[in-house]
Design brief:
The protein is elongated and about 100 Å long. The protein has an eight-stranded mixed β-sheet with strand order 1-2-5-6-7-8-9-10, sandwiched between helices. It has a two-stranded parallel ribbon with strand order 3-4. α7 runs parallel beside α8, α8 runs parallel beside α9 and α9 crosses α11. It has 14 helices and ten strands. It is an alpha/beta fold.
């Protein structure tokens, strides 16, 4: 009877297409019914009850793994919200002159301390060439674009005006990367430094410089502009560079930039910064320190990487202050002129500025005597 039904169904199907699928009802045995009754019910699937998974041979979950909770910020990294009178004054001055700071753009945790200091000691790290970078490093919150707005020709003079108004003896400049410009902005940086020196010849100027894609002439343009401290950040160890920085920012290239600055102006103090907490090993940190000494870098700072937004790289580890102290001691033992190391230390940090001010003043005094 079953065979005749199949033949009848086959004759009724159109020629050249389709398949006939037949399902035959099977009567469940009492044992099968008992097994099903003991298994998971609809509620188990809705509520996610793991009872049915206990004896399952498949232990690896399918799909996305559950998100790892973010580590809580340790007490030693918590800072006060800035509210001082000086903080608001500096902010207003910057807005009036259409200037940007890396303090704001990079969400620096020390902004309250640096901007909120007493008259003559409060400072901000001015970010030149706009607030939009042509590179997209995975740790940085500065805006990115392949074609940022053109340079502001008044920026060098406005920067000198702002610094003169603050009455500083030491200022830190930094900038975005401008790979869209023929000279990567090196002439603009040099003009700003010369303008600062024109307004205040005694002013000490540190510039946290881009890498200019390793171009020796562009590095020399900045190094020979009257600068006192040439800084360029390594950011991380060699093994992590391709994961942390933009693909155009290379570890060996950054080392070469620091070397070229010394070649162009041997009296320059050179400086760099490395973030910790990205997954680096002790051996990788020590190798980086040795690489920096090999190219004559004078000053080194270590600070904790802080994830600026949820879109950026996560923190692998909150490094304990004792570990930072260990790196400071090792840096001093290796012969660095100055090693600043602490969770909240950044490349431009007031304690470092005070030390470098004394060193530079001493050098100038020696030069005057000879």
């Amino acid at each position: 009877m079953f065979a005749s039904a199949v033949r009848a169904a086959s004759r009724s199907m159109p020629r050249g297409g389709g398949q006939l699928v037949l399902f035959r009802r099977t009567k469940l045995t009492d044992a099968s019914r008992a097994t099903i009754a003991a298994g998971p019910g609809l509620d188990d699937f809705i509520l996610g009850t793991p009872a049915a998974q206990a004896d399952s041979p498949q232990t690896k979950p399918k799909g996305k793994l559950p998100k790892k909770p973010r580590e809580r910020l340790p007490d030693w990294l918590k800072t006060k919200i800035p509210t001082s009178k000086n903080y608001n004054k500096i902010k207003d001055n910057l807005r009036d002159l259409n200037l940007h700071t890396v303090c704001e753009e990079a969400r620096c945790p020390n902004i309250g301390e640096c901007w909120g200091g007493e008259e003559g000691t409060a400072t901000a790290t001015i970010m030149l060439m706009g607030d939009t970078c042509t590179r997209g490093c995975r740790f940085c919150s500065i805006k990115t674009s392949r074609a940022p707005p053109p340079l502001d020709p008044n920026e060098p003079v406005n920067t000198a005006k702002a610094v003169a108004k603050w009455g500083l003896d030491y200022v830190v400049l930094t900038s975005v990367d401008r790979d869209d410009l023929e000279d990567a902005g090196s002439a603009h940086l040099a003009e700003t430094i010369r303008e600062l020196k024109k307004w205040n010849p005694k002013l000490l100027v540190e510039c946290l410089s881009p890498d200019f894609s390793g171009n020796p002439e562009q590095v020399a343009t900045v190094a020979k502009s009257g600068l006192d401290v040439f800084a360029h950040n390594m950011e991380t160890v060699e093994a992590l560079t391709k994961f942390v920085r933009d693909r155009r920012a290379k570890y060996r290239q950054s080392l070469e930039v620091l070397r070229l600055a010394k070649v162009a102006e041997p009296t320059l103090i050179t400086k760099t910064s490395v973030m910790l907490g990205l997954g680096e090993t002790d051996q990788e940190v020590r190798q980086t320190m040795q690489d920096l000494r090999d190219v004559g870098v004078d000053c080194l700072t270590f600070g904790q990487y802080m994830q600026p937004t949820k879109r950026h790289m996560k923190v692998t580890e909150y490094v304990h202050p004792d570990k930072f102290e260990q790196w400071r001691e090792e840096g001093d033992a290796m012969g660095f002129l100055y090693t600043a190391s602490g969770p909240l230390v950044r490349s431009s940090y007031k304690a470092g500025e005070f030390f470098l001010t004394s060193v530079l003043r001493e050098r100038r005094g020696e030069a005057a005597e000879t």
